[in-house]
Design a protein that fits this description.
24 strands, FAD/NAD(P)-binding domain, 14 helices, alpha/beta, globular, 3 domains, Enolase-like, domain 1, five-stranded parallel sheet
Length: about 450
């Protein structure tokens, strides 16, 4: 079998060419590392072609009054009709070699693809995650009536009726999208409330937002059987209720798939992979994971952060950690939902934590005819600094950055309450919540 030696050509092999890989290449630009990237599908990964960009485009276009067909046309233009050459060219400009093939580990420092073995100093795995298909009687993921989020975001025809299985970020956003374009939409969520790890008021407003768009939300339900017909799909629930649609969108989450990576050739059990806070796969010294496959969260911005940490270690510094920075996340409804830092469920029972809770009813909300909103922010008594926030309301996705900076910068509540928020902006809610926290900490 032919072999390419790291001494002659490559020092880093990257498996997967999605967001994390692209960020890593930017971080390594100008270094001595010679990088080869393996990708059997699209260079750029899920986000630009099948997830973040097309979904946000469709949501935006509905707000601006575009119809389904016009929105689909613009969506496909934005994603370059799923042509990845622009992404591939950018990777090459950053010095990487692109190999359009699936690769796997073949022992320490060895990667094989298309019958060629590459010997390298470091292997970085960034292969993303795959949709979880729940074990429900009759559910066939290959049936044309069963969709994942990818199918939903390449669809050219809008279904008249759609059932969404799962009330998390992806399920909620896509249910909101289809309902906004006029599809009869049902969302089924097993938990007693959506986003049940967040503040109950946040959860309540998420559901109200979906229902206002026309989504029929059912929580606390358990699908027992799926009936796939020639032109319809029916979901039968444990309480003998049922729902019928043209499509069933399965959106109960995504999970890393480590089974085909060749980790067993390193003595690592692919069913029990542990990734350290530095990104290194435990049991190895030169195999790294970043992005969704690392099992630390599934967000594009988190993948970018992971890449900067891994690059720091590849550069020989080794001071950075995945847990260095607070994680923000958004659910892009109208209005958007945000969370910064740990959810309330993780802070329950901590006597050092106090919460401030405010309804978002700023003058800007009235002028722009925004619906009601809510924001909860937590601080520690021992430090006087905020540590977490969650809520839903107009423009919270944009002003959440102020919360990120405050938490990462360990800015005291006393300092925050003295800041000036421009009027009239929704940011005025921050002044109110900071003052309330200051009073509770006093």
């Amino acid at each position: 079998m032919p072999t390419t030696s790291a001494n002659d050509e490559y020092s880093v092999a990257v498996l997967g060419a999605g967001t994390a890989a692209e960020s890593l290449l930017r971080e390594l630009e100008g270094s001595d590392h010679r990088v080869v990237v393996f990708e059997p599908h699209l260079v750029g990964g899920e986000c630009p072609f099948y997830a973040c960009i097309p979904s946000k485009a469709m949501l935006h276009d509905r707000r601006t009054g575009r119809g389904w067909n016009d929105a689909v046309e613009r969506r496909d233009e934005l994603v370059h009709h799923r042509d990845d050459e622009q992404h591939a060219d950018q990777a090459r400009e950053l010095g990487a070699t692109i190999v359009r093939a699936e690769a796997r580990l073949d022992g320490p420092g060895r990667v094989t693809a298309d019958g060629v073995t590459y010997t390298v100093d470091h292997v970085v795995i960034a292969t993303g995650a795959v949709p979880i298909i729940p074990d429900i009687e009759g559910l066939d993921a290959d049936h044309e009536s069963v969709w994942t989020s990818r199918d939903a975001l390449v669809a050219t025809a809008r279904p008249d009726r759609i059932i969404v299985l799962g009330g998390g970020v992806v399920g909620s956003e896509l249910a909101f999208m289809f309902a906004s374009y006029g599809a009869e939409t049902v969302l089924l969520e097993e938990a007693d409330r959506q986003a049940d790890d967040l503040h109950p008021r946040t959860s309540e407003l998420i559901t109200e937002t979906l229902e206002r768009a026309g989504v029929r939300v059912h929580t606390g339900v358990s699908p027992e059987r799926v009936e796939l017909g020639e032109s319809a799909v029916t979901v039968h629930l444990a309480d003998d209720d049922s729902h019928t649609g043209d499509r069933l969108l399965v959106a109960v989450g995504r999970a890393p798939d480590h089974s085909a990576l060749g980790l067993d050739t390193l003595g690592v059990d692919s069913d029990d992979v542990a990734v350290g806070d530095d990104g290194c796969v435990e049991g190895t010294s030169n195999v790294w994971m970043m992005g969704d496959v690392a099992g630390k969260g599934q967000y594009t911005h988190l993948a970018n952060h992971h890449a900067s940490v891994v690059a720091n270690h590849l550069a020989g510094d080794g001071s950075r950690r995945f847990g260095d920075a607070v994680l923000p996340a958004c659910m892009f409804l109208d209005p958007p939902q945000v969370i910064v830092g740990p959810p309330p469920a993780e802070l329950d029972g901590d006597d050092d934590v106090v919460w401030a809770e405010v309804e978002i009813d700023e003058p800007r909300s009235a002028t722009d005819e925004h619906p009601a909103g809510f924001l909860a922010v937590a601080a520690r008594r021992s430090t006087g600094c905020i540590i977490a926030a969650n809520g839903i309301g107009p423009r919270l996705d944009e002003i959440s950055h102020a919360l990120v900076v405050a938490i990462d910068g360990k800015v005291s509540v006393d300092t925050l309450r003295k800041t000036i928020q421009p009027f009239p902006t929704v940011g005025g809610v921050l002044s109110r919540v900071y003052h309330q926290l200051h009073d509770q900490l006093a």
